[in-house]
Amino acid sequence: MAKEREKKLFTTLFGSYAAELKLLITTLLLLCTVATFLQFIPSRFTISASDLRFCISRVSTSQTLLNTTTNTNTNTNNLTVTEKLNTVTSTPPNLPPPPPPPPPPSVQTEHVTENGIIKRAFNPYGSAAYNFITMGAYRGGLNTFAIIGIASKPLHLYSKPTYECEWISDTDADTNNVGVRDPVTTVGYKILPDWGYGRVYTVVIVNCTFSKPLNTDNSGGKLILNAATSGGGDTSLNITDRIEALTEPKNSVDFNIFTSKPKYDYFYCGSSLYGNLNPQRVREWIAYHVKFFGPSSHFVIHDAGGVHEEVYEVLKPWIELGYVTLQDIRGQERFDGYYHNQFMVVNDCLHRYKFMAKWMFFFDVDEYIYVPPKSTIKSVLDSLSEYNQFTIEQMPMNAKLCHSADYGKTYRYIVLILRLFIFYIMLVLFLLL
Known about the structure:
By secondary structure, the protein is α+β, with helices and mostly antiparallel strands. The chain has helices at residues 2-38, 49-76, 81-89, 153-158, 279-293, 309-320, 342-353, 377-382, 411-432; strands spanning 111-112, 118-119, 133-139, 144-152, 162-169, 184-187, 189-191, 201-209, 221-228, 240-248, 264-273, 297-303, 324-328, 357-361.
């Protein structure tokens, strides 16, 4: 009788919990199914470790500012009104006093001419765009220089700004820095490499070629750029900005660089990097091209906001090995030019490093250099040795299909097979129950 009671009790318990057990297994099956197919749905929301660190740093900074404000308020609550005013208006002892504000422009008023015509007045304020913004200036030889920068595109579109180059040797100045002899001058020849793409600013390369070699005794000197606006449509307001573009201290110029063998065979000048770059893609790109170009190569990467913490960790080993130079050019974002002022950046790289390499390459980090089978980059360039410039044909990659030889080898397919196998086992168990 006891065994029959235990059997009836087990049957009753099993019968009462069977529905709940089936519901639990069904829920697990649905979760497995969703987890299996979720990985094939592209997600637009991602969160990385850098995002979490950024959020934490924001919270910490806010808390620090709050504590600082609280402490400041506590300390200043015990001061008199005069002491508080002196505290706010006083200048820190280590900082120079601020420069005086510029005088206000003369305001014109409308008036009636002798002919009875009302002449209206237009009073400008502020500055629409800078006359010239320099990024760098470099020697191109014994008597030639290149000044790289950007300038107001409306100024070049509606006016004819001119440039004059001036060289002041340190031996031509006395102790009061006053020129003893007249400086050497020449007309600056301007080049507009991105004229069809320029926005508020357009890239301007000013070539200064003098009639004789300069600073050959390495005594030092300065290159001055006199940039005249030519009125910008108003000849009565012709303004000339005197810009100290390049300073050569005494014994600072290595003239052997113009005739000696270049340090590198291949040199890469990268475009402006911006946005949320994928560190893994950058890792693949730099590893591929270091192997492709070989040990006698160098890469200059320009960070316009795209080299975040994860990308920097990818580039850091190559920087330490001497393959990569990273330049922070985020300051140019203040000036609205085409594609983060890409043409200015690559032209600066060209003139800065052109005597350090036999060949220089200009392409993006989403492009890979490829040569035909049984060829090397050296054999291809040796066949082009009689040329000083060549272009590379572009062939887009297929972004939809995988290589047939890699079918079934990826981790995602293995995970899918395992999950489907577990799914069917659980389905069989569910049907048996």
